[in-house]
Write a structure and sequence with these properties.
alpha/beta; globular; 20% strand; 9-stranded mixed sheet; 17 strands
Length: 521
């Protein structure tokens, strides 16, 4: 059965209160408040709005504004932060001290919102953002329901009531199903906004434009012309003080089950007949449902997990994962995952998708690399010493957002030597037109009521159905190895064996067009 929502034309309301649970946390300071500031500067907030921070830390409104002022100047680029605009923006921020885990604190919280409603002439339009630890994801919606703060237009009123949930949405299939049950008992599907900030990035959205707005790519976008696809999302940092969270989560839950399969789905989806939130998300779910299930043998051999060990780079000592703060010194949590997946349908049958993510890699980059099949006969380079690399399309999600297409051209001079050249596009070449902030885009969409770039409940369940056997196998099968790899390297050597003969991982360099290429057939 296809799950649908009511397709209503997105529009920014005249007035709205955005509540951030976890208002003193890292996500709020680094991402949410700076992104809301940028929307404010661009005139993309409602005419009358308030942002209410809710957390256990004790602040007055003025103390909270003063604290956020410092965080804005710290996390915004110097050319974006403007003192006068920051002061104007911060006047819209308020703070309510409460424990989101205690139902008795919600009565006073509701009264505070009603007081602000009168000040703003707001008809009780609320968006609730859960920037909290995941253990509260199942608690807060029940407490909101207890004081009837869940009742919006889906419940027969004209009020806006939406709730935004950060990842991870569950830790396995069982917990995801239980969490979905909590939310669907209190909210309708069109009130739920499960956020994945990767989908807010311009280049991720441009995957669809590249495929469906250009006649030259879509006819080739299938098993007949594509040899394989790589999706890489790596960081050149460790866990950055998140040891307590990360040691219970790991790379598979943190990155693969959500971010990377979203990118895979954008790459593999069929074109919707018309473009709206329902048709787009229907096609995403179809991709998830087409993932070819892994056998126990494939989980053992084709899903490589690793954990970074200590190393020295440029005379700097880098700690092993097990030496990080709040990490179990005998931890078996993976900081690296590489795996081979198949989308089992007519378009993609037999084409491998290679997924890779890791901490403490040589660089920070997220990109999709599409390797097209080579020519049937390599007449210019029969020895495959030069010019035999098939066409490669690279879609860089971050940083240096852009796209590059590699193809062979004759080298000037005598003979017919062929070398790889590149046609590329980068957003920073658009003459000052910004690529945009992912959270700003998604926050704006949420306030407008556009769920297109948010994950639907059936997609969450379909993804967990595929990855749950891997999690269970890692937990129950002691023979599945956890490979070590020195910090700032490209991960365990065992991951190289995932590639077919004479194929290699594409290890990204800083420049989009400066990529390690290998002689391939």
């Amino acid at each position: 059965m296809t799950l649908t929502t009511r397709n209503i034309q997105p529009v920014m309301p005249e007035s709205l209160i955005l509540v951030i649970f976890g208002a003193s946390g890292d996500l709020t300071m680094r991402k949410l408040v700076p992104s809301l500031y940028q929307l404010f500067v661009k005139g993309k907030m409602p005419k009358r709005f308030a942002i209410v921070g809710a957390a256990r830390t004790s602040y007055t409104d003025e103390e909270y504004r003063e604290y956020l002022h410092g965080k804005l100047s710290e996390h915004l680029p110097a050319d974006v932060f403007k003192e006068d605009l920051a002061k104007d923006f911060l006047r819209h921020l308020y703070y309510h001290a409460m424990d989101p885990a205690k139902v008795e604190d919600y009565t006073a919280f509701k009264e505070r919102l009603e007081t602000l409603d009168k000040k703003l002439d707001n008809p009780q339009n609320y968006v609730f953002y859960l920037a909290t630890p995941p253990r509260l994801y199942g608690v807060i919606p029940q407490h909101l329901t207890h004081v009837k703060l869940n009742e919006g237009n889906a419940h027969g009123t004209e009020r806006i009531r939406r709730i935004v949930i950060e990842k991870p949405f569950g830790y396995d299939l069982e917990s995801a199903l239980a969490l979905n049950k909590v939310y669907t008992s209190s909210f309708e599907e069109d009130q739920l906004y499960r956020i994945d900030h990767f989908l807010g990035k311009e280049t991720a959205q441009n995957i669809m434009a590249l495929r469906f707005a250009n006649g030259i790519f879509e006819p080739l976008w299938n098993r007949n012309y594509i040899d394989r696809i790589e999706i890489t999302a790596v960081e050149n940092l460790g866990i950055e003080g998140r040891g307590g969270f990360y040691d219970e989560t790991g790379a598979l839950r943190d990155m693969v089950q959500n971010h990377l399969v979203q990118l895979l789905a954008l790459t593999a989806m069929e074109p919707p007949a018309v473009f709206n939130s329902d048709t787009f998300r229907n096609e995403i779910v179809k991709v998830y449902q087409s993932f070819k299930p892994l056998t126990p043998e494939q989980i053992h051999n084709e899903v490589i997990r690793g954990q970074y060990t200590e190393s020295t780079v440029n005379d700097t000592h880098l700690k092993a994962y097990r030496e990080e703060d709040k990490v179990n010194p005998e931890s078996r949590t993976e900081t690296y995952v590489a795996m081979k997946m198949y989308v089992d349908n007519w378009r993609w049958g037999g084409v491998p998708f290679f997924i890779r993510t890791g901490k403490q890699m040589p660089t920070k980059v997220t990109e999709i690399v599409v390797h097209f099949k080579g020519t049937p006969h390599s007449m210019f380079s029969p020895d495959c010493s030069t010019g035999c690399v098939p066409n490669i399309l690279t879609i860089r999600i971050q940083p240096n957002e852009g796209t590059a297409l590699r193809f062979g051209m004759k080298t000037p001079g005598s003979g017919f030597d062929v070398q790889q050249v590149s046609m590329d596009f980068s957003y920073d070449k658009l003459g000052g037109v910004p690529a945009g902030d992912a959270y700003s885009r998604l926050l704006e969409d949420c306030m407008k009521g556009d769920p297109t770039l948010f994950t639907r409940s059936d997609a969450v369940e379909a993804a967990w159905k595929y990855f749950d056997p891997i999690i269970k196998a890692w937990k129950e099968d002691d023979t599945i190895p956890l490979h070590g790899y020195p910090a700032r390297t490209w991960g365990p050597k065992e991951a190289d064996a995932l590639m077919p003969e004479r194929r290699f991982w594409t290890n990204p360099c800083k420049n989009l067009t400066d990529t390690d290429l290998y002689c391939e057939l």
